[in-house]
Design goal:
Lipocalin; mainly beta; about 140 residues
């Protein structure tokens, strides 16, 4: 095996730093989420405490690039997995293009996704979840700290 020289956080992943902090979420799901970096800066952790359709949803999401055992380089996409209080394990792909954040359900290009836009100050993220076959809901996250 060659020496891994890609231990420095890449710019695309580092751009997600604008999510770090606690956000009040309103819309189809309501509550708070908090983003923080795992030591080393290669994974962003989201702590979730929401209510949706009358049910409490808590969990964590680990966001970063996959680098399986033995791989010399990390994967191309920024992927995540959510682990929820009801036993859910949901996979997503994060894509940030300027001020527009798209979170794809499953794989990039999926018909299920959330697309939101940061305001100029970077303290409001507003958009909507879109579900295949119709449906979804509007969502707004406002930074509280």
């Amino acid at each position: 095996m060659s020496e891994n020289t890609s231990l420095v956080q890449d710019a695309e992943l580092a751009a997600l730093d604008r999510l770090v902090g606690t956000w009040k979420v309103t819309g189809g799901a309501e509550g708070t989420v908090t983003y923080r970096w795992l030591e080393g800066g290669h994974f962003l952790i989201q702590d979730i405490d929401l209510e949706q359709y009358g049910e409490r949803i808590t969990g964590i999401e680990v966001i970063g690039r996959e680098r399986p055992f033995g791989a010399e380089q990390a994967g191309k996409d920024i992927k995540s997995r959510f682990y929820g209080n009801k036993g859910d394990t949901l996979d997503y792909v994060y894509e940030l293009d300027g001020d527009v954040l798209t979170i794809w359900g499953g794989e990039k290009g999926s018909p299920a996704y959330m697309r939101s836009t940061f305001n100029e100050a970077g303290d409001v993220l507003a958009g909507a979840w879109v579900y295949p076959g119709g449906g979804g809901y509007e969502t707004t996250s406002t930074r509280v700290k």
